[in-house]
Every structure is written in C-alpha cells, then in structure tokens.
What does this fold into?
Amino acid sequence: MSGSGDRLAADGGSSTDGGRLRLTGDRIVAAALDLLDDRGVAAVTMRAVADRVGVKPMSLYRHFADRDRMLDAVVDRVVNELAEDPDVAEAPTSGWRPYLQALARGVRRYARRHPHAFPLVATRPTDAPWLNPPLRSVRWVEAFLNGLLAEGFTDEHTLFAYRVFNSFLLGYLLLETSAMALGDPRSGDGAYLSRGLEQGKDTASPDAPVPGALTPTRTPADRQDVADAEVPDDLVDPQGGVDAAEFPTVHRFAAGLTEDRWDAEFDAALQHMLDRIAGFTVN
It folds into this structure.
C-alpha cells in the first residue's frame, strides 16, 4: 500500500531465465522476511539472504542499494498484508466504528505473524516521515482520513482519531510482539553468543548465534505449555534472573505477570480507544 512497496511490482515475480527462477526484488524480500521471522533482524544480512535465494551477495545489489533499502522493502511487504486481509476494508461500509475495529485487528494480525519485524514497522523511516506507525503507508493513511471524513468527522476529530488509533496500536503491539519473542534460546538466534563459542562452532555458519538478535518466537503450542504448567517458576524465569528474596512481590506475582491475556485485553482496550474517539471534544 505504500510507495516503496509499489517499487517491488516492477521486478516481477516468477519469471525464469534458462529454466532457473529469475532473481527479483520480490524473491529477495520474501527470503529476507522468512529469515527475519526465523532468526531476528540481526540475522538478516545481504550474505544470509543471498544464501537463501541461492545467489552471490553482489546479485542483491542490483535490486537494493544496501541492507537498509532491503529492510525498508520488507517493512512495506509486511504492512501491505493489510491489503490482502479479507476482513479489512479501505473505506467504512457500516459505520466508522466497525471500520476502525476491523482495521485495528488487521494490523494486529500482521504484527503477530511477524513479531520480529514489527519493531521495524515502528522505527524504520517512511516515505513521509511525519506519518505515524503502524498505519505508516501513505495510501492507508489517505484511506483512513477520507473514511472518517466521509462518516461526518470534522478535520480536528479526524486528526484526533488518527493519533489515538496509531498510539494505541503502536504501544500495545510493541509489548505483545516483544512478549512473543520470549522463547527458549537455541543456536542461531543470537541470545547466547558464548554458547556457540563454548561448543566450538564457526560463528560465521548458519547455525551460529547472531549477536543482537531476538530469541525465537514462541509457537502457540509453546505458549499453551506455559499456560498449562502446574509449576511455572522455571518457565516464568528460565534464566533465574529474579531473586525471590530481594524481589518477593515480583516473585509472588510472577505467574500473573506472565499470563497470556493479550486477546482479551486487546479487545477491551480497543473498545476503550473507540469510546474515546466517539467522545471527542475540542479542547
């Protein structure tokens, strides 16, 4: 939905050259996003992406000037998943409230599909730097503003809704996607560089830890195991970083602090946010 995302379309998709799949911007971005989902942003290097698509690293530079441009395209790809969401409309069809509710849930769906990418959605520069994430695409912001104006919002009310909507989603989803990244460490995720060194692994190999990367994302099954655990202490604080004697209240609340209530709390907070928009008054 954004200008830079549209640049990818010119590269084409699945053309072949002599029986071999042709390298395109779309293929590079898809491979980079897969790598980002698997191992975190620190693992997404030009060399690692080139390995995934089976080419030399220099081949990528014909499509992207550098890693930053490639990551910008990855962010565009993630945000553009809104356009493929059947439950998200570009304009209200049954009132502004259902429209914003569906749009918010669509943003949450793409954030949860790509929890390692969402911090990039929040921080990478946009074509129009004054647009707020996560609704950062010029086309989506245009649709948002026009949709509310068509519903009878004033200019001031529309801008208020835009700021409240983005602020709510950005804060909530950064917390939720960060919580999703609290998995058990394993090689390649960057959580424990010393582990790879102790085992004598080549730190340049695909299985070596990647400095600065997030830990792997918990699967739904992993999260259910945590929720069902009868003795959750080890799961709550697997690294043993909280001293129960020094921080007894945190220790006592540990199970509750790690309880997965994201779905219920998102829906409740979303309704409060919409109520705030509905009750807008000019200060």
Observations:
- The longest strand covers residues 16-17.
- Residues 155-180 form the longest helix (26 residues).
- The two ends are 34 Å apart (CA to CA).
